[in-house]
């Protein structure tokens, strides 16, 4: 056991930060969608699983793409592509809208779960699946955005 702890203590993960955050983020994303697809197959009727609740996951996926399509240097204005229509102001608005979509889909999944499933004494498993999917997609988005280091790209 001491050898394992010593190995973990001496392990240098500094140069593997991007790889690890990408693997964790991608795994959370895949598991989240897997849970939602499983719920859609297991509960095919609309009164069991609201088909409109999949819009939360779709918006969270679009938010992940939007948020991670810009770099932090573009957000700060340090990028050499800071002029024109896609300047710093546009990038900041883009990131703000992406955060709104990400938080909004998470909040909407909580709302759907508690309003449609818990408050009306229905089978809560399909609603819980949508909730867990959006929690995983939100965590995936945040890990992929803030877990990577742009210093390692050069």
UniProtKB/TrEMBL annotation:
One of its GO terms (cellular component) is membrane. It comes from the Eukaryota. It holds the Pfam family UPF0220. The keyword Cell membrane does not apply. The keyword RNA-binding does not apply. The chain crosses the membrane at residues 20-43, 49-70, 91-112, 124-144. Its main location: membrane. InterPro entries: UPF0220 (IPR007919). It is a multi-pass membrane protein. It is found in: Membrane. Keywords: Membrane, Transmembrane, Transmembrane helix. Belongs to the UPF0220 family. This is Transmembrane protein 50A. It comes from Brachionus calyciflorus.
